[in-house]
């Protein structure tokens, strides 16, 4: 295997500290509907589209609503989420993310976003990193949700690379699964137990360099 030519980043929980806002907003919705959700259940929401997340939440509460109501509930959750990220700036970038993006940019290697979020452009702009991406593939462009690999396959295609020439950074179990299914090298960012299907896991991106990544990849062989 040659050196990695493309770097595909999930957004929420990898580059920015927004996973907690998604959780808080879904929890508020569940509470409004009369029940609560746990952090463990929240793991299943990470990487999953807004629509599918709502279906999961409603199943936890044993609730069903007509489609029209579901759209309203998803909008309500999103309004709370958007309010919580409204004052966002570069202080919400997770440790090491900016440094790694800068290093990759400086080498001229490809960078794509691979996120389920429909709020990604707003987040990338408010944190000042929008221009660092060669391609932005997000929930406004995909039709399939992780663990389907579509979002990453579209990212590789936009970079004109094959999956095995790219690494994917993911903080969710579903995202790691998507990367593996698509034939990418999967790098878990976060808890090694939760992300046990990743090729390797970093607790966060702090101190994560191209050299470290290439070293880990050569250990896989
Ligand atoms: C993913 C998050 O990145 O985006 C999920 O991990 C979220 O929690 C999904 O549901 C969709 O995000 P949004 O911003 O379109 O509601
Ligand atoms: Mg994520």
What does this 3D model show about the protein?
With 221 residues, this protein is α/β, with parallel strands linked by helices. The protein has two domains: 6-17 and 90-220, Rossmann fold, CATH 3.40.50.1000; 19-85, Orthogonal Bundle (DNA polymerase, domain 1). The protein is built from nine helices and six strands. The protein has a six-stranded parallel sheet, with helices on both faces. The structure holds 6-O-phosphono-beta-D-glucopyranose (BG6) and magnesium ion (MG). 6-O-phosphono-beta-D-glucopyranose (BG6) binds at residues 11-12, 22, 45-50, 53, 78, 115-119, 139. Residues 10, 12-14, 46-47, 171-172, 175 line the site of magnesium ion (MG).
- Proportion in β-strands: 5-15%
CATH architecture of the largest domain: 3-Layer(aba) Sandwich
The DSSP helix count reads: 9
Determine the N-to-C terminus distance. Answer: 9 Å
Largest sheet at a glance?
6 strands, parallel
Rg computed from alpha carbons, rounded to a whole number of angstroms: 17 Å
Oligomer kind: single chain
Read across the widest sheet, the strand sequence of neighbours is 3-2-1-4-5-6
How would you sum up the global shape?
globular
Examine the coordinates and then state which fold CATH places here, giving the name of the CATH topology of the largest domain. Answer: Rossmann fold
Helix content: 40-55%
Q: Quickly count the domains.
A: 2
Counting helices, strands and paired strands, the structural category is: alpha/beta
Q: Provide mean pLDDT, rounded.
A: 96
Would you identify the CATH H-level superfamily of the largest domain? HAD superfamily/HAD-like
pLDDT below 50 for ≥5 consecutive residues: which ranges? none
In the CATH scheme, the class of the largest domain would be: Alpha Beta
- Following the backbone from N to C, one meets helices and strands in this order, namely EHHHHHEHEHEHEEH
Number of E-type strands: 6
Small molecules bound in the structure, each named once: 6-O-phosphono-beta-D-glucopyranose, magnesium ion
